[in-house]
Each structure stands twice: as C-alpha cells, then as structure tokens.
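ok so I'm stuck.
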Amino acid sequence: MEEWTIAQFQAEMSAGVLTARALTEFYLQRIAEIDESGPAINSVIELNPDALALADRLDAERRENGGRGLLHGIPILIKDNIDTADRMQTSAGSLALVGVPPASDAFLVKRLRAAGAVLLGKTNLSEWANFRSTRSTSGWSSRGGQTRNPHILDRSPCGSSSGSGAAVAASLCAAAVGTETDGSVVCPATVNGIVGFKPTLGLVSRSGIIPIAHSQDSAGSMARSVADAAALLGAMTGVDPNDTATQASKAQDDYTRFLDADGLRGARIGVARNCCGFDARVDRIVEESIAAIKDLGATVIDPADIANADQLGESEITVLYYEFKADLNAYLAGRGPDLAVESLADLIAYNEAHAAEIMPYFAQEHFIAAQEKGPLSEEAYRAALERNRRLSRAEGIDATMHQHRLDAIIAPTGGPAWMVDLVNGDRGVGGCSSPAAVAGYPHISVPAGFVHDLPVGISFFADAWQEAKLVQFAYAFEQQTKAWRVPRFKATVGAEG
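replied:
not stuck anymore, here's the structure
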C-alpha cells in the first residue's frame, strides 16, 4: 500500500475492503520500522495518541452515512508549526514552546478535520521554519533532532518542511502539510522526490500557523502524486474571518477535477533560463522536461526569463525581519500566559539560557536582527514591501507572463540534495522559489529526474489564483514522465540500497 494513491485508498474503503483503522495501523507500523528504527529518517516528531480512535469514529461514520469526501479516513501528517488543539504539541521544533499545547486548531486543521482526515501526527522541521540562524542546517530542530533524506541518508531533506517531505517520500502517510515562506515546501519536495504545491497567498488560511512573515507565509500540500497534492490542497481551502487574505480567495474545494493527462495541449509555457545554469546535470533534466512538454502539445517559449529574479534578496530579508518580530509577538501573545516565552525578546533570552540544548550547532542571528527592527509603520518596512511587490509581480512574473502570453513558467526547482553538515550549515545550490514566494503566487514542484540517485524537480508557476491550471499542467507532465521513484534508503552516494 506504500505506493497507493488517496483515490485508491478511498475505492478500497468504499468497497469495504479497507478501513481507516487498518490504514492508520499500516502507517504507524511503517513509522516504527522506518522512521524510528531501520533507516531511522526521523521525520515524525510526535504521533497523535488519538489517531486510532479518530480512525474508528470515521469508520463508524462511513458505515452509517457514507464517506465525507476525498480525505475521509485518510492519515495525514502535519508540520509542527501548525496549531492542533489536541494532545499533541505545536512547537516549531523549539523546546521553548513545549508543554503548553494551543487552545484551538489552526483554520486549515479545522478544515481537514471536517473533511474526515485522520491527523496521524506532527512532522519535524528546520527549527522555527529555518529562520533562526544564517548558518542553520535544514531538518534539524532542538526538539526533534536531524531528519534525513530517505533516498540517500547522509543528504539533506531540505527545509523547512523537512519532515513532511521525507515522510511522504518514505510512505509514512498518505500526504502531509508543509508551510512555505520562501522555498520551504518546494525545496523539500524536489530533494525528496515528491510533489510540493505552494498556493497563492490567501488560498489557505494563515491563522494558527507559527509565523515568519504574513506577506509570504502559506501552507501547502506535499504528496507522492499531483492527484494527492490536489486532493489535500482542496480540503485545506476556505474563507477564514480571522485571515483577511482569504477574503479574496478564488479557491476550489476539489482540485482533482482539473487532473487531465492531455492538460498541456495548446498551453504556452515559458522557460526561465535565468533560473538555470547552476548545474549541467540539472540542465539536462530541464532539456528532457522541455521535450516532454513539447511532446504533450504545448508551445514552449524559450527563453522567458523572469525579470528581477535576482534583485529581491535585500528587500525580502528586510520585510521578513520586520514581519517576523510583529507576527511572532502577536502569535505568542495569543497562545496564552503559560508559555515559557511571550515575545521574540523572551525567546532570544530563553535560547541563550538553554544554549547547550538549543544552540549546539548554530546561533540565532536572524532572531537578533529581527528584534532590532521597529514597528511595521516604519518607512524602511513600507518601502521594502512595496519594492518586493513591484519587482516580483508587475515587473516580474506578471511582466513575463504578459510579454510572452504565457499560461505558466517552468524552471528547475533546485539542485540535488547536499550533505547534511551541522558544523557548516546548508550548502544548497540553485533554486527558483523566490519570485513566486515574494509575489505570493502559486508554485508546484514535480519530480523530473535524478542525479546520482538524488531527485530533481521541475517547477511550474504562474500569476495569482492559477492553481487549477498548474494542477492541469503538472499532472500532464507527471503522467508523461513518471519520474517518481521509491526511496532506497542508501547510506551514501554509490552505496548499495
């Protein structure tokens, strides 16, 4: 069952051959055998003690009333920066938040519960969603330790949704939820060889997600197939009165309606060549992907470079620092008075006081830089935010789409996974996440090939609210190329597995 899709699970449960309890037990056993022992990829930070009871209730409901929909009885893992009001923690991987679970579910969790999903547990992540240090190591947190890549165990799972990406690749769940500020869904997707779908800002509510920056934060779906990623994404959408960004949402509740193996026929797809050229082996995969897209009947415009793609760094980090301080302070205040920390300043002090456990490998340079920023009313923040939006939207993706009359843009999601290095931190090369991340536009990464048994993905992105098109294009590409591969849990490059 480790290669089955959500649709296959639903068919078996509808036929009475499979139950949610049996499926939940199957994944719990795989977690014990693969995540906790065996290859020990360490992707799951905590299991839900109520998972089997949830599954039993959903089985009883199916017998009495039928299924609720695509996710009824389907075990899903949730990144450990998303609030769940149950017996699990929500910690962002930090010891500072352990001990006081949230009082309410994140809005997206409410949606998943309503859809009938079984919340199987929480996944490990790069601590504080990879926003603590300039020298951090993806997949490491003081609470969860180091997550490993299931394809080659000494390679990075990327971050910050490291555990979600690794768990999905290793078939420890049907699908998982990740979050992204810039690259944290699509990077773990590409290096773990799965599908990662970061939607338009506001398609999925930000309420109840431990924040980095409200202008870029978004939850996304991570799965072994485009169909499963589409199913999970649709279940998470909805208008949330506590998140103003969702008021403009053009969400669908079922993106699987747009699965079309012929979906690239007649489409105009641009190639962002200014996101290529960092690795000749990746470039070969890009050329193979372009050929596949042409074979499927698309018109390829090459090049269709994204203007300003390399001009976003300084203003982006300025915005992130300002918004992190404001947003985190607001989040911590809303968690209640029993937490060990109530503000970013408290958190910095807590980390210093517990440096041996929390900062054995890297420090908190980002935290300190953010704490030095003033309120969001400052001109420096407003100017940086305006620059971000202008360069990434009107003068960036929008301009490229309009100039070439494109339906979508493609680029390599990134390079193959690098070695895990707790001493020196991450050493990843290449990536195309920033334009769509800063713009708040949708971005899906799909498996495209391998470099020495390390997965490489191709990204499709477009302007706002184009999720349906991206599902259509990504599914057609996936069905043509069939690049997904079962992980072999190899110890290192060249080893037997």
